[in-house]
Amino acid sequence: MKIHLIANMYPSQSAPNYGVFVKNTEDILLDAGFKVDRTVLLKEKNKVLKLIKYLIYFLKIIWKGLIKKYDITYVHYASHNALPILLLKKLNKNLVIYTNVHGSDVVPEVPSQEKYQPYVKKLLNHSNVVITPSKYYEELVRRKYNLENRIEVFPSGGVNSKTFYQREDKQSALEELNLDRHYQYIGYVSRLDVGKGWDILLKSLKKLNDEQFIKKNNIKVIMVGDGKDKEKFEKMVSEYKLENVIIHFPLLPQQKLNAIYNAIDVFCFPTTRTGESLGLVGLEAMACGAPVIGSSIGGLLDYIIDGTNGFLFQTGSIDDLVNKIKLYYSLSEDQKRKMCDEAKRKAEEYKVENIKGKLIEIFQS
Fold first, then answer.
1. CATH of span 2-158+352-364
2. Rg of the chain, C-alpha, whole Å
3. What is the pLDDT at residue 209?
């Protein structure tokens, strides 16, 4: 079976985590013996170059779709790929489309994304199969677009157990990152963009810092990420006098994230996006033994079991996040160890080797 994989996000050396879930699904299909021909876009910051690359990308999609013979056209991100695929469908009525929807496809993050919604709806209605990352997102998609198509759930390529695992010695992770072993660490890994909750975390840390909780408990916070709000982030860190609390890393390759997740005690996932279709970073942290304190929203509800493998807090609530951080650090060492074990147990369900059969089944049927 020959598959045409189409995605406007794909990892590169300069942006190793950009669309990594697309590569994860590609690897599963290749390992299963499918032939995959990909047409993808790498991250580009220059607006003019980005526009030119999108134009070439769209032309490639249409040209390949007309000239080459594929059994399935597999699309990641409906909003950004709807136009060329819908045009291709008009030119080739027999086109078999599998569409994998994510975050802003269904829940636009900014007003400018609303204009894509009519095309998203049309593409999903023309798709033979619609793939969603979580049960939460499946219900959202079905309800919003009133779909009668076949909808499948597959968790964004899953957790790579060769990369995300708990090390036998936490000290090795601390040394790799040049971190002081005398501190306790909270982790955050995400883009510094609207809705990712980095600002909610900083406001919570300010409150904890003002109350001397951070100093009394020897806590530092590792924040990994870059994005459009980087200047706002840096300004807020300075205004809140958190320079000695925050350790900021830019975007890191996945192997380095293994060290981050193994160095921290707990992972914070304060997203406010109703379109948070899964939240793979939370599962990757869990796979490394870090419980997650996450927003009660989106795909996080699929895997965070409150009080068992982490804590859920009221979305957007600074006070509730403060309380849940305090609650975690009030636990006994035995309770923390049990929470860590439960986090790993839940992440096990999402490991590539345990979910790849589902993706293979979707494509074989």
1. 3.40.50.2000
2. 21
3. 98
SS3 per residue for 113-182: HHHHHHHHHHHHHHCCEEEECCHHHHHHHHHHHCCCCEEEECCCCCECCCCCCCCCCHHHHHHHCCCCCC
Kind and range of the H or E element at 39? strand 35-40
Q: Report if pTM > 0.70.
A: yes
Position 314 scores a pLDDT of: 98
Please state, in angstroms and rounded to a whole number, the distance separating the CA atoms of residues 287 and 343: 7
Candidates 222, 264, 274; CA nearest to 103 is 274
What was the pLDDT predicted at 322? 98
Q: Which residues of the chain have pLDDT under 50?
A: none
pLDDT at 363: 97
3-state secondary structure of 2: strand
Question: How many angstroms separate the CA atoms of 272 and 321, rounded?
Answer: 13
Single out the residue of 49, 131, 134, 50 nearest to residue 97, CA to CA.
131
pLDDT of residue 18: 87
Domain residue limits, the chain? 2-158+352-364, 170-348
SS3 265: coil
- Under a CB-based contact definition with an 8 Å cutoff, are residues 78 and 9 in contact? no
CA 240 to chain centre: 28
Give CA–CA dist 344/339, Å, rounded: 9
Identity of the residue numbered 118: P
Where does 170-348 sit in CATH, by number? Answer: 3.40.50.2000
Q: At what angle do helices 198-210 and 318-330 cross, to 10 degrees?
A: 60
pLDDT for residue 365: 83
Residue 166 main-chain phi, psi, to 5 deg: -85, 130
Strands 35-40 and 129-132 turn out to be unpaired
Residues 6+ away with beta carbon under 8 Å from 280: 21, 155, 156, 157, 159
Identical fold, 2-158+352-364 and 170-348: yes
Q: Give pLDDT, residue 130.
A: 97
Q: Tell me, what's the pLDDT at 22?
A: 95
| Whole-angstrom distance, CA of residue 89 vs CA of residue 101 | 18
Six-digit token string for 83: 């136009």
Phi, psi angles (nearest 5°) of residue 5: -90, 125
